[in-house]
Write a structure and sequence with these properties.
The chain has 284 residues and is mainly α. The chain has 12 helices and 2 strands, in the order αααββααααααααα. It has one domain: MetI-like (MetI-like fold, Orthogonal Bundle), CATH 1.10.3720. The protein is 69% helix and 1% strand. The protein has a two-stranded antiparallel ribbon with strand order 1-2. It starts with a helix and ends in a 9-residue tail after the last helix. The relative contact order is 0.15.
């Protein structure tokens, strides 16, 4: 409760939390929240503007697309893909990066140098280009997208965790555990890991927004999930041909991506303030 009170002292962070909760609820309860079938096509009702009504009197809050499908319904269903890709890929990259970061920090002489050399090579290649190449080889699917984004984004976690472990291993409690005969695995996962988790949580919250943007970019290019699954990036791609006349086709999903990523970043920024002991912001 004390943590929640400190968190809500920031109005921007509270706004970010509200945005994230709306997206999560939309994703979890999408089948019950959609006003129309997101795959239901009606050519006679195509390109309806926002707040327009169909011939049957049904209200389309955000309008319809080029095939007469309700944009609000597709937006709600698309949130499931964005949230799943964002969270799942960060979990994969987080676990991989934290483990490799612990190993690199604990054994900085040999294994650490090799792992950081691999990380430096990967950082030399633009992330989106690397993801595009791998997805193009494996083919577009939800599983492949999550796997590619997760495996290719571990470097940020590993470098931060390694830097903190290099400092923590010189602390008295680690040296005391070593003197008592603690094994390397126990030192890493029992003593070092809990002390780097605050940084990992903060990095993870920031990475979720980044992964949502990458998923939208790949879906826009046709290399994300299959085209029959509604995604925010795919919706933007579908509407780019009509952007000069039917602006809402691309503007609505684009605005959804913008609001969601800003909300996640506001949430992550506040978590950094509260969890980072080096920042004297707990009383703000």
């Amino acid at each position: 409760m004390q943590f929640l009170r400190k968190f809500t002292r920031s109005h921007l962070a509270t706004l970010g939390l509200a945005v994230v909760l709306v997206v999560v609820i939309s994703a979890l309860f999408a089948p019950w929240l959609v006003p129309f079938d997101p795959a239901d096509q009606d050519i006679m009702q195509r390109m309806l503007p926002p707040l327009a009504r169909s011939d049957t009197g049904a209200l389309h809050l955000f309008g319809t697309d080029a095939l007469g499908r309700d944009l609000l319904s597709r937006l709600i269903v698309g949130s499931r893909v964005s949230l799943l890709v964002g969270v799942a890929s960060v979990l994969i990259s987080g676990v991989l990066g934290v483990v490799l970061g612990l190993l690199a920090g604990y054994d900085d002489r040999h294994l650490g140098r090799v792992l950081m050399g691999v990380a430096d090579v990967q950082l030399a290649v633009p992330f989106l280009v690397l993801a595009l190449a791998v997805v193009a080889v494996l083919g577009p699917s939800l599983f492949n997208l999550v796997l590619v984004l997760g495996v290719t984004s571990w470097v940020q976690f590993a470098r931060i965790v390694r830097a903190e472990v290099l400092v923590l291993r010189e602390r008295e409690f680690v040296q005391a555990a070593q003197a008592l005969g603690a094994s390397g695995a126990r030192l890493m996962f029992r003593h070092l890991l809990p002390n780097v988790m605050s940084s990992v949580i903060v990095i993870g919250s920031m990475q979720v927004g980044k992964m949502i943007l990458f998923e939208a970019s790949l879906s826009f290019l046709g290399l994300g999930v299959p085209s029959d699954i509604p995604t925010w990036g795919g919706m933007i791609a579908d509407g780019r041909t009509y952007v000069s006349t039917e602006w809402w086709l691309s503007a609505v999903p684009g605005l959804a991506i913008f609001i969601t990523v800003v909300g996640i970043n506001l949430l992550g920024d506040r978590l950094r303030d509260l969890l980072d002991p080096r920042l004297n912001t707990l009383e703000r």
